Amino acid sequence: MHAQRGDWLVVKGIHVDVPEHRGRIVAVGSPDGDPPFTVRWLGADHESTVFPGPDAIVLTDAELPARTVREGNPEGIRVPQGSPHSPRVANRREPPVPR
């Protein structure tokens, strides 16, 4: 996988009800565009270093709108509020469900 600064990293959710996570690549690990990538995640307002797995793809600015419209999400670049990928939610523990 290769990227340039300014491309988008899109990581698919690992479960059906988990939305994909999108972020702008702000730095790449080598001049060739190899990982790791530094990504500023949308909706989470933080940056992290990422070694993308097989569930991730890199899209250019031109490719992103076409992909989101094709999938029926013309706004496409927003992470839904309460996304489990958001660091504000991911570290929160839910209370146990009574039996």
Automatic annotation (TrEMBL):
It holds the Pfam family DUF1918. InterPro entries: DUF1918. Residues 69-99 are annotated as: Disordered. Residues 1-58 form the DUF1918 domain. This is DUF1918 domain-containing protein.
